[in-house]
Every structure is written in C-alpha cells, then in structure tokens.
Design brief:
This protein is of the alpha/beta class and 150 residues long. It has 5 helices and 8 strands, in the order βαβαββαβββαβα. A 4-stranded parallel beta sheet has the order 2-1-5-8, sandwiched between helices. It has a two-stranded antiparallel sheet with strand order 3-4. Bound molecules: iron/sulfur cluster (SF4).
C-alpha cells in the first residue's frame, strides 16, 4: 500500500483552497492500493489558510504565527491513518508519493521560509517522520523512477 498526498489526487486541501492534481498520480492510485492523507488538514488547519514554510525547524505562517504544533499533530494523525488502513487491509506500507517542496510533504527540498519560491535542502515534517521509519518517499516528480516496476 502507498501513501499519497491528498492534493495530488485533486482534493481541495491546499492552503489556497485548491489542489495540485497530477493525472499520472491519480492513475497510479487507480492501479495500486493507496491511502490519501493531508497532514495539514488532519492537524486541524482549514483550507484556505495562510501559507506556511519551515524556518530553523519550526513552521511559521506568512503572518508570522508559529503553526508547528498543527503540522506535528497532523503528521502524527496522517501516519496513524496510514498504519490503521494498512493493518485493516492486511498490507504493508511500501512507500509514499508526496507533494514536492511542501513544509509537510516535501522530500529532499522544501521552500526556504521567505515565501519567494526559493528552495533549500530539507524534508517536510510528515516526510521526515516516514523516512525515520524507513519508508521510501518520492514526489510527483520522481515516483515513477522510484516505485513503478519495469
Ligand atoms: S502538500 Fe501535503 S499538507 Fe499540503 S495540501 Fe498537499 S497533502 Fe496537504
């Protein structure tokens, strides 16, 4: 079973009230066992909401409010949903396809905290949690190379 960022399959959970739908991720979900999560929504944040980015290990929204607790709680809730779903289906979590650059879901690179679109090395809060458990994480940009068997 794979974990997938909910915004990548067209659910309007993004900070601006929209989504990041990627048809090839939707297709992957139709062909594989998947569970969708949105750590920010599951942490209690509404859509639309202020955009937020990581700064020195904390998550700060554009107005300057520290929203780290929402992000941390949401990551824990998303992980719980994924583990419960895998257990119910009698499957193991094979990996995750998460939205690139997000402060929750980014993998390898995230926005740098200046709200200018610049990126720095790093992982989203949820991604880090999965990686610490040894779960492979890819983004919408490289999941085919990582997960689609030749
Ligand atoms: S990137 Fe992750 S936290 Fe942000 S809207 Fe998409 S699923 Fe939710």
């Amino acid at each position: 079973m794979f974990i997938v960022s909910r915004c990548l399959i067209g659910i309007n959970c993004k900070y601006d009230g929209g989504n990041n739908v990627k048809p090839d991720v939707v297709r992957f979900c139709e062909e594989h066992s998947c569970v969708s999560v949105c750590p920010e929504a599951q942490g209690g944040l509404k859509s639309p909401r202020e955009p937020a980015e990581q700064v020195d290990g904390r998550v700060i929204d554009k107005s300057g409010k520290d929203v780290t607790e929402f992000f941390q709680r949401g990551a824990e809730e998303a992980l719980r949903l994924a583990m419960d779903t895998a257990e119910r289906k009698g499957e193991v979590i094979e990996g995750a396809i998460l939205k690139a650059y997000s402060p929750s879901c980014g993998c390898g690179y995230i926005y740098d905290g200046t709200f200018t679109g610049r990126r720095v090395s790093g992982n989203g809060i949820f991604t880090k949690m999965l990686k610490d458990m040894g779960i492979p994480v890819a983004t919408e940009n490289n999941f085919k190379e990582v997960f689609v068997r030749k």
